[in-house]
């Protein structure tokens, strides 16, 4: 016990009887036993508290991880729900841009009449430009 042999324990007991006295020795031994029991209980309580704290720390880490996941999911949902708003805003601005377009004759083109006849004007113009290029 405590790295002591039988002779060392016997020597300590003899010294205790001499200094404390035979009538106070039993009471002193009981007090020492109570002190060791209290120390043991205190150590056990501290050990349990430390284990709870370690467990609480792990739980707290898990809770923070879940919180981060929830924040990311909330951000994604917010982005998805803002898409229709962005589209409607874009369409509204496009509509207002179309309404505010300048109707000058330069930008406004007259639609061509749809016919099924061949366009000969372009061929004649093309022949004229080909003849001019040959003459040069």
Explain this structure.
By secondary structure, the chain is an all-alpha fold. The protein has a domain at 1-80. The chain is 77% helix and 0% strand. It has three helices and no strands. The longest helix has 75 residues, at 25-99. It starts with 5 loop residues before the first helix and ends with a helix.
Helix/strand layout:
Blueprint (H helix, E strand, L loop, with lengths): L5 H15 L4 H75 L21 H15 L1
Name some characteristics of this structure.
77% helix; single chain; mainly alpha; 136 residues
Helix content: over 70%
What share of residues are in beta strands? under 5%
Specify Rg, calculated over alpha carbons: 50 Å
Low-confidence stretches: none
Task: Summarize the main sheet.
Answer: none
**Count of DSSP-assigned helices:** 3
Kindly report how far apart the N and C termini lie: 125 Å
Structural class call reads: mainly alpha
**Mass-distribution shape:** rod-shaped
Number of E-type strands: 0
Question: What's the quaternary structure here?
Answer: single chain
Q: Strand-and-helix sequence, N→C?
A: HHH
Mean of the pLDDT scores? 78
């Amino acid at each position: 016990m405590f790295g002591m042999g039988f002779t060392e324990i016997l020597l300590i007991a003899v010294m205790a009887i001499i200094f404390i006295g035979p009538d106070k020795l039993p009471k002193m031994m009981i007090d020492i036993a109570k002190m060791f029991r209290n120390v043991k209980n205190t150590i056990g309580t501290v050990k349990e508290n430390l284990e709870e704290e370690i467990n609480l720390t792990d739980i707290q880490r898990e809770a923070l991880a879940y919180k981060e996941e929830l924040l990311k999911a909330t951000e994604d949902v917010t982005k998805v729900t803002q898409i229709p708003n962005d589209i409607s805003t874009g369409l509204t601005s496009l509509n207002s841009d179309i309404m505010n377009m300048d109707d000058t004759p330069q930008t406004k083109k007259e639609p061509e009449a749809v016919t099924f006849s061949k366009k000969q004007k372009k061929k004649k113009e093309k022949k004229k430009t080909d003849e001019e290029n040959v003459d040069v």
